[in-house]
Amino acid sequence: MLNGTKLTAVGYMQGTAEDETGELGVDAISFDFRRIHWSPVVNARGDLGTDMFVQVRDEQRFSLGLMVGVQAKAGPKWFKRPVHDEDGTLVGWWFYEEHKRPR
């Protein structure tokens, strides 16, 4: 193991399924922001929970001068507690941290 990455017999490094799922989630969320003409910038360095910053634009694609921090979640472990409105429409998910303090 090297920094949590498994080395194979010939020395090639192998990524984890969890890392791949997380990266796919960031890509999918970034795509969704681009569809509404907002500008996501992935935060790959020094990530302490903020996966990307997004520049907010209006319907005419003018910048509103707002920057939003986004934490992306992907994979089934994050979506176990769905929340529905009065009509039964899915509005999001609750996630409860297992630790008393964030890591």
Could you explain the architecture of this structure?
With about 100 residues, the protein is an alpha+beta fold. The protein has one helix and seven strands, in the order ββαβββββ. A three-stranded antiparallel sheet has the order 3-4-5, with helices on one face. It is extended and about 55 Å long.
Approximate strand percentage: 25-35%
* Strand element count: 7
Number of helices: 1
Instruction: Please state the oligomeric state of the protein chains shown.
Output: single chain
Give the SSE map.
Blueprint: E1 6-7, E2 13-14, H1 17-35, E3 39-42, E4 52-57, E5 63-70, E6 81-84, E7 90-94
Antiparallel strand pairs: 1-2, 3-4, 4-5, 6-7
Brief description of this entry?
By secondary structure, the chain is α+β, with helices and mostly antiparallel strands. It contains 1 helix and 7 strands; from the N terminus they run E-E-H-E-E-E-E-E.
Overview features:
single chain; 103 residues; alpha+beta; three-stranded antiparallel sheet; two-stranded antiparallel ribbon; 1 helix; 7 strands; extended
